[in-house]
Design a protein that fits this description.
Number of helices: 3
Strand content: 5-15%
Mean pLDDT: 73
Number of strands: 4
Order of helices and strands: HHEEHEE
Largest sheet: 2 strands, antiparallel
Low-confidence stretches: 1-5
Distance between the termini: 82 Å
Shape: elongated
Number of domains: 1
Strand order of the largest sheet: 1-2
Length: about 110
Amino acid sequence: MGTVVLATRGAVHRRRLAIGMALQQTASSFVNVNDWICPTENCPPVIGNVLVYRDDKHVSKLFADSMLPIVRARLVPHLAAVANTRQSLHHMRSAPPTTTVSGAECRPQ
């Protein structure tokens, strides 16, 4: 019996790379999961007794659920950074404007 191959690492990598590049253009974060989904040249249909693919473009729900702790650990730092950025932007917008006169900073009363 031959090996079932639904995808190759190169095809998976190219698809996710294109998505990642598009996200970077919108200042979005991207967590690369290629090594978890396709750890070898030919992407295995089963990892750790869990069916990986539902079809040629989607992972199975069981595999996605099994990856949740790992993905969550990678996303939490990104979410914290986004929250900090939003908080900083909000603070900048709500701060009264400043004017510099002869090297002294003046805030409107």
